[in-house]
């Protein structure tokens, strides 16, 4: 592993020196310019805190410089909300001689009069910027949080906060689902921030599924009636009240309650077994011990930054992956997890891409394309010409793919300092295949025609092929009927990628003892799509499996059998379990931010709720 060092060893009577695997990888990592090679080698690495600076990044002499009694490393370790309070206190406190009175107590001034004069303008600017970040619901983030770890919604809100401080007018702002990853409480702050931009004389255009955001809008344009090739039309437009009255609007019907996701009349009891996470202390978790009942639909809720992902993804998911799959990721700090033997498989479905190149698509990821290619090899003309499955693959060199674009159907044009541009390949016209492969037809369709079909159309086309039809039907059930089979993975949103993964797992045989972990699966989903998704997840639970969801969507939360509510706030103000139990149990919890909003959607909940065995 580490080679011979300076020592030599004999090979065929010659003295040789061997570098070793680890030094060789370290050398290649330092010398390479290829991101691909770096990612491959990083697969054998773990990130650990620097032992010299203890993660503070700076030398001791720099850390010795303080402002307001605090070093720069300590300040960037604050949450944005804490930092705002800290800098505001420096700004507002004015020393009286050498001491000042705060709530009747005499304390030394944090800043001298000279320091206050020097820093006054800078402090005002810092406080304004921090408060803008708090206004858009990002108060829980720490100032030194790496940008690469932020979700798309968080990055978008950081940019929005930047705009709040500019005082520009006459600007059109376009936001794509800014509510992603936000608790309803934080979403209210975001809506207020958007209204502030509007009131400054700007136009704010928001692409959104969130009901509170739609209700707050001055004007709504409702697209549809379906998705993908089934949509593309304006079905209704006007004020929220006008949308609700429009019979053609599916959105309006859900907002008025004519269509709705029903509140469960019964809660499942589960199988009597549980996973118990003991003594969780990673990040902001405060020695948390929590029980996750098995055989139920379980929701983990709480305001943004309350510790949900840390508890479920960083601790539970990684610990289970190490046990079942010998994964190398190290779980977050905790004492132990009990009950792992009561499940036999864990499937964690996140929103990472299903592929990084245009060649990856839903058909290849789900495995349905393998069966489709096998069908084409059975066509009599293909048999006569001796074509195998490789002839119908756009990944196999020298087969039936178009070599001009390497089977991508697109050609990349480098634009130097601008983003690369992709255009249809001039040789194949974007079809990915050469003329030989396109001569073979199944039911009068070429392999390229099949890839251009929507999932829903393809499911109908392959009704006589159970292996293919079953997988496509599951994709349709999770609300992806509009996707094209050959749609590039790079064009899928995080929510779509997650549902493709979910459909892939659903099409496999369930053991009845599987734990499914999903992180905000409703991202990018309309009310009607959420209804369909819940139907699929409930099918999994009915088979004895456990579905564990991190979620902010109230329609999903109200449909759970069991809720674990984290909080009460984000960042340092969170990290504890503030409520757990059935939705009705959580309603009674004091200090639960989720309970405040859950009460509004559970008005139809019967006084007595039955419990399903």
Task: Please render the helix and strand layout as text.
Layout: E1 9-11, E2 14-16, H1 21-31, H2 35-42, H3 60-63, E3 66-67, E4 70-71, H4 72-76, H5 80-92, E5 100-102, E6 105-107, H6 113-135, H7 152-164, E7 172-176, H8 184-199, E8 203-207, H9 211-216, E9 220-224, E10 233-238, H10 240-245, H11 250-256, E11 266-268, E12 274-280, E13 288-293, E14 297-302, H12 308-325, E15 336-338, E16 345-349, H13 362-366, H14 368-377, H15 380-384, E17 410-415, E18 418-424, H16 435-438, H17 447-451, H18 455-461, H19 466-480, H20 494-506, E19 514-519, H21 527-542, E20 546-550, H22 554-558, E21 562-567, E22 576-581, H23 583-587, H24 593-601, E23 610-612
Parallel strand pairs: 7-8, 11-23, 14-20, 14-21, 16-19, 19-20
Antiparallel strand pairs: 1-2, 3-4, 5-6, 9-10, 12-13, 12-15, 17-18, 21-22
